[in-house]
Amino acid sequence: MAHLKPSLRELDPVWQRICSEAEEAIKAEPLIGGMIHACILHHNSFDDALAYRLSMKLASPEMSEQIIREIADAAYDDDASLTAAARADIVAIFDRDPACHRFLQPLMFFKGFQAVQAYRLGHWLWLQGRRDLAYFVQMRVSELFGVDIHPAAKIGQGIMIDHAHSIVVGETAVVGDNVSMLHSVTLGGTGKEDDDRHPKIGNGVLIGAGAKVLGNITVGHCSRVAAGSVVLDDVPPMKTVAGVPARIVGEAGCSQPSMTMNQFIDTK
Length: 268
What we know:
This protein is α/β, with parallel strands linked by helices. It has two domains: 13-146, serine acetyltransferase, domain 1 (Orthogonal Bundle); 153-267, Hexapeptide repeat proteins (UDP N-Acetylglucosamine Acyltransferase, domain 1, 3 Solenoid), CATH 2.160.10.10. It is 43% helix and 15% strand. The chain contains ten helices and 15 strands. The longest helix has 17 residues, at 111-127.
């Protein structure tokens, strides 16, 4: 028997799992069959499914689904790292969010994942010099998801934004890989300066709910920012900061706080 070339689904374990979970979801709840087929099973690859999902979410009377789909298809054809980062984000969410039980969920239902992928599309447009389209994507993400990420900001992969309500990331902010943040986090400036004015978040950082990190400061890798803190100064790597204004209150407690999601502060 001639050897058959593996399909895209077989070569992409994330996509393979999403498709399997989609079929199981339809069996469990036939009423969502049409939506699952349109969003997942109708497509031949993860890239196609993600482009379709974003086009359906971002479309408005001002910008049709077809135009956004064409933009997303062009972006994913031009830069494979966009969808590679999306796959890493799905795995991160599944690993860190106890409410995520399937790879299918972020793509279909989680606004944190969808907002970050839309940001990635806007960032690609920004780098292409298509600034007004990038601003349109930013606007739609803010309107739809309550997440405001400037398209010029730089964000790594393996990102988990839990609940993703009232997230703000400024123009010159940089977020590393494998970062976790909860709702109402702000990575903002401190005034009207028009230069490098936003935080730089290292790899593996955990930022608690409601935390505000302000100014051109660095939060070192694998550190923790406690919920409700206001960070105005640099944070060394692998430390925990808390308070208003935030102060170092101890070590990070583990090597990868963004993955363990442990927000308990040992006061002993």
